Fold this protein.
Amino acid sequence: MNEGVTGSAEGPAKLEWRGVYKRFARAPVLAGLDLAVAPGRSLVLIGGSGQGKSVTLKIALGLMQPDAGQVLLDGVEVTALSEGARRRMFSGIGMLFQGAALFDSLTIWENVAFRLIHADGVARGEARERAVAALQLVRLGPDVAQLYPGEMSGGMQKRVGLARAIVGQPDILFFDEPTTGLDPITAAAINELIVDKVRSLGCTAVSITHDLASARTIADEVAMLHQGSIVWRGPVGELDTTDNPYVRQFVSGSSQGPIDANV
Amino acid sequence: MAIDSDGAGSAPAAALRWVALIGRTTLGMATEVGAITHFASRGLYAAVTPRWFPRQILRQLAAIGFLSLPVVGLTAWFTGAALALNIYSGGDRLNAEQFMPQVVALGITRELGPVLAALMLAGRVSAAIASEIGAMRATEQIDAMVTLSTDPFRYLIGPRLLAAIIALPLLTLVADIIGIAGGWQVGIHLLGISPATYIINTTTFLSAWDVESGLVKAAVFGFIVGLMGCYHGMNATGGARGVGRATTQAVVSAAILILAADYLLTTLFTRL
């Protein structure tokens, strides 16, 4: 393994995982993960299935507790905060889930306005207006506002998920496999939207993906996670030129190399 | 442990295995009881302290209470009617058939009204809550709620517990009335008892506590119905199969706990 790669950001980090360990039953998933993202940068985490990418994201979001180590948001350790304090601190966070994770029982505008109504105390009328405006930012018309998630395609649901993530003007956005399950044209549209929104909001972005085309579009930097730690990190332009054997095998899709095929 | 050739060492080894099994089972049960108790306290705290979500509470009241009226009403009517027939034919052996209206009223208000309404809700509501919350867990909707700075205990669990605790006593009151009406219809139309006699026998005999104790029981049963649905739904793992398992566990555990709580409460009330 390529020891000593820490995944550090230059300068003060917006978000940082410091020596994070996590294991499930007998299997270690994260083994002292060190990773940091600078403000305003878009970091994409790549790696094979079961290498701990989703766990990395869930620990940062407080959905999972690490066995050891710290997660720092703007220099404040969030793993030690109570649930309530963490929820308040995370009010500036937006997350696009792999399956969009829209609430089935709510209409589209209620999904988008969920944080505004239930956490920020915005009146329903104003929240609806802001939700419709957010839907327009992801190129969905006001006619979809009254639909339910089950009445929309997967690509449209992802757009709604993105609108829900950005409606609160977050300063950090997380994307979990944003293009999984989408056709190439819809995937490209989602990638463009992500780049557009991250840049226009000026926020920090952390994404995990298997989709290298997506990574090339949305990333400023790419980090590769293997067996619970970062084995390579670099600018997205070096993804295809690095001689790191893990990245080369991952990019080429070869079964020959240091990564065992997980079948 | 050494095992000698004639197998003399196998008996202690087998005994140890049994002890280990009993220990594991006991620890597992203690862990589960602890987890349910912790979940119940968090849920109750979320139900009785602000911030509340009135729309969610109203929605759950409609789903748990209003939509359960037909099934609870039908169950109560048939039970009251069958109870009247059984008591009349059983009382006939002791020349005590004239007490049928009183016994039907007592049986319905103190026992069958709350218990049957609760068992119907265990099947209808615990299952629905467990499958809905379990599906939300499986599709990351609960994780999404957390990232949207909203406490799932306040938004999902508290309203359901509150609605179940409020709705079941109201449903029980309806079940009491319909159950007694079922007995009344059988008494009047099949057994030839005069309507006036039936009503006088019922109302003069029945005390307020007979009804109230049933309503107190119903509130406890409502809590159990809501709690089991929420607990098993929130802890569902393993996709669709896990949601199915959680649903079954919610119904079975709610039904058992309702019957156990009924015995304990009846014991308590008869000593008051």
About this structure: The mean pLDDT of chain B is 93. Residues 41-271 of chain B form one domain. The two ends of chain B are 57 Å apart (CA to CA).
